[in-house]
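ok so I'm stuck.
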Amino acid sequence: MNKLETISALKKQANISKTEAARVVQVFFDNMADTLAQGERVEIRGLCSFFVKEYEGYTGRNPKTGEKVSIRPKKLPFFKAGKELKERVDL
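replied:
not stuck anymore, here's the structure
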């Protein structure tokens, strides 16, 4: 399912216009992204949680040249499935 399919499903189930459904979906995703960008956790009970994991910098190697390369510290978003979602998928 992609963003357009989510908008269509919301439009059909909530009986609202496509524009309103698109706005709701956009606000939801924008708020999630803003919260994660601030380093906070997003939890949707029974479904999943999203959180930011921090990695320290390290020295890597360029696979083509073998040259040592300094890798900067970084933060990446992670998804963790909730118990109910795991049970629904594993039927």
